[in-house]
Amino acid sequence: MSNTKNNPLVLLKKRALYYLAKREYSHLELKLKLSDYAHTLEFDEDALDLFISSLVSDGWLSNERYCEQFIHAKKNKFGRYKIIRELEEKGIEQALIEQFIGPLKNQELLYAKQVWQKKFKLLPSSKEEWSKQARFLQSRGFDVSLIKKILNAKEE
Q1: Which residues, in sequence order, are CB contacts of 74 under 8 Å at separation 6+?
Q2: Is there a contact between 61 and 29 (Cβ–Cβ < 8 Å)?
Q3: How far is Cα 144 from Cα 135, in angstroms, rounded to an integer?
Q4: Which of 4, 42, 84, 113 has a Cα at 20 to 30 A from 119?
């Protein structure tokens, strides 16, 4: 009878599944989160990469699911550019980002208006106010053309 209770692989998998039960992770994000613990269990970099690959092949870890979930969670607060940048930082490939960000483009103006209305409510009455509102929307990752559509609405 082998003792699986103290088996390093079992312990690492238990930790990984604990994290994955709470939310989706990108491959890179989970690897970084597990690396210190894996090191204490004497896993080297290659062994950890192999372990991450096994989670992917077993269906526990998916950059596709992560990307889709991340975009869904952020689209009401941030624009396409900020979401793309954050996904790139999480190690998501450009092709995958493009695949999932595409549908967001059609509704981005609606989300930008909602973000703007929540913060400002009224259209800018001066150039300074216009700049302030534009900077806010730009910091949230919205495209300049969308910002102009929203802030110049009274001129239409």
Answers
A1: 82, 83, 86
A2: no
A3: 10
A4: 84
> CATH 1.10.10: does it fit domain 1-61?
yes
Report in angstroms the alpha-carbon separations of 103 from 31, 77, 87. Answer: 29, 16, 16
Listed by start position, the domains of the chain span 1-61
Residue linked to tokens 């596709």: 64
Nearest to 52 by CA among 10, 91, 16: 16
Per-residue pLDDT reduced to its tens digit, 102-117: 888 889 999 999 999 9
State pTM to two decimals.
0.84
**Alpha carbons within 13 A on the beta-carbon side of 133:** 25
Separation of first and last alpha carbons in the chain: 78
pLDDT digits (tens, 9 = 90+) for 60-77: 999 999 999 999 999 999
Q: Are 62 and 90 in contact (CB under 8 A)?
A: no
